[in-house]
Amino acid sequence: MKTKIILTRRLPDSVETRMRELFDAVLNEFDQPFTQAQLIDSVKTADVLVPTVTDNLNSTIIEQAGPQLRLIASFGTGVDHIDVNAAREKGITVTNTPGVLSEDTADVAMALILAVPRRIVQGDTKIRSGQWDGWSPTGMLGHRINGKRLGIIGMGSIGQAIARRAKAFGMSIHYHNRKAVHPSTEAELEATYWENVEQMLPRVDIISVNCPSTTATHHLLNAHRLSLLSSHSYLVNTGRGDVIDELALIELLKQKKIAGAGLDVYENEPIVKSELFDLPNVVLLPHIGSATIEGRHAMGDKVIINIQTFLDGHTPPDRVVPAML
Ligand code: 8YV
Rounded to an integer, what distance in angstroms lies between the CA atom of residue 165 and that of residue 160? Predict the structure, then answer.
């Protein structure tokens, strides 16, 4: 008897095919995000559930899991969509796919770090709308990247991958994290650690949010902390939307109290507050940080390895335990 696994979304063909070879894999052919009722049905029938960020596996759903559900092998790094404590209480193991999407996400963060101050999207729009009448010495002026200070909030593997890129662009690296990174990493990145985020915020030119969403980081950038940013600064978020108080950010942008923002994630995805659409100094992306073909294959491989290792009776390599959060 093969193990029954339920995939809540479509995954790359090769990943799904391998899963069908190894397991009794139930695919989501039409790729519609699962409703609450479908999620409840899945936790009652699957041995292994493979969810993504679009599934809200809160305690109400997890508490209804049948005894057959032993593993939630999430396709993604962030686990804020899963109540890991509730899963643990039910004896359900949770895994994720860290590491394999760091470089891709860092590329998108760097793209936003370049795009907003250099007005890349505005330039493209100008041409497409037929409004460009040629070069001018004062046209489309943005701000220089070289020599600026980058403040990274969350110095895990994604934050570090951004720091490496930013350093190559001539930026100096500042960061806030629960604790300082290893001295050799700090030396390599020539990075300055700020234990107190409020001290770092007014001193940097660009902020990049790269921490996970946890109870400790929810609205870490609230109205008060956002107000500490200088009026020439930019904010980029490729982490999780709810780390920033989105309404407070919109207010700040409207009042020109910061220079611009680049967002790939939002507080209530897929809802994007329409006030953001009217702000020309904002670049909006649809949560594509890890959206590369290579990355999705690597994530799929990790999910398969986690499931297979677990079924073989070992601790899966990417087990998430509440203490890590
Ligand atoms: C993933 C992400 O694509 O892995 C994460 O935490 O935010 C995304 O880049 C998504 O979570 C897949 O479930």
Answer: 9
